[in-house]
Amino acid sequence: MNNPPPVLQVRVWRGAEDGAFQSFEVPRHESQTVLDVVTYIQRDLDPTLSYRFACRVGMCGSCAMTVNGKARWTCRTQVASIAKNGAVDIAPLENLPVIKDLVTDMAPFFDKWARAKGQFRGEHTRKDDFARIQPESAQRKLVDEAIECIGCGVCYSACDVVRWNPEYLGPAALNRAWTLHNDGRDVMQTERLSAVAGDAGCHACHTQMNCTERCPKHLSPTKSIAGLKRAALAAALKGRL
Amino acid sequence: MSVGHASSASALHVRTQVLLWAAQRISALVLAVCVVVHLVTTIYAIRNGLSAAEILSRTRGSAGWAVFYAVFVGAVAVHAPVGLRNVLSETLNWRGRGLDAAMALLAVALAYGGWRAVYAVVAAG
Question: Closest Cα partner for A152 from A207, A101, A113?
């Protein structure tokens, strides 16, 4: 970065749904992340600012916010890559209830994982031998492509279908269902396909790919959802839904 | 927070929802072909100023055009109501039995009006 402006003009969302932006001036540093900016504001300018973070290294998925209008993981987002004329707007994630400032209520997001049967259910007990899944098998490779989700909610926040249809399960929950659909040990297959199919499930996806565009882990929930659409259609045609 | 079924937003069974989704995509494939044939034929037919009587003289008694436009109308009657059902639920938040009944009615109206028109141009005068 060449000669960053010494001060960053930051507008941060304050309050709940009916809140407003508050302006702060934050000293600019090289390699500064958006999370660094928020942390500076809380520690040095206004200790009443609420926000979430934990790991600071892109593993825990707790620091996602809307930065200059786009959902991002703030701990791995460099200010240099997103600041416009030395200014940054930081707001809570969209499509989720705002509790206070930058903190959203993630319950609807994770409740949908449960509705999508995001739980693994096997039939082996500790007395059985290990299941043997070949790393090179087609099914296991499909799981590998989708398994690294950190549950940050960025895809859910970026999805227009979630905005239009509050019942829609959303990209992350469907992506999770897809990994379990391809898990050879799982025994809840038909039940899960029934849970994720139809108007509130995978078939509501318009393939706009906002989730895939925004996913910080470079996963493609769109591809997972397409897989679920095909699997659910096959099950419907066989009368298994 | 609801812990119900993904299909809870609709009165239709989840299998029906999936089959409607498939029907809309299959009808879209049919429509893509039908629209191209229809447009090309229309432009070709009226190139030299064809009158209604001349068009009718070609379509009347033609089994080929009867089947083609009957299929075209059938695809429209499937495609439009399913698509409109999504549009209305996403933009007006209209869901449930009332919407499904209205769309079924629309499907019947499109099929009736369309097939009636097909009959009028292909039945011997």
Answer: A113
Interface residue B12 vs chain A (CB under 8 A): yes
- Domains held by chain A: number: 2
pLDDT in tens, B30-49: 999 999 999 999 888 888 78
Lowest mean pLDDT of A2-16, A28-42, B96-110, name the range: A2-16
Q: Assess A110–B contact: CB distance below 8 Å, yes or no.
A: no
| Residue A135 located in a structural domain | yes
pLDDT at position B44 is 86
Residue range(s) defining the domain that contains residue A178: 107-237
Distance from CA of A51 to the nearest CA of B (A): 24
Q: Is this model's pTM higher than 0.95 or not?
A: no
Nearest-Cα distance to chain A for B37, in Å, is 28
Do the bridges between strand A7-14 and strand A87-91 make them parallel or antiparallel, or are there none, so unpaired? parallel
Nearest to B82 by CA among B36, B31, B25, B34: B25
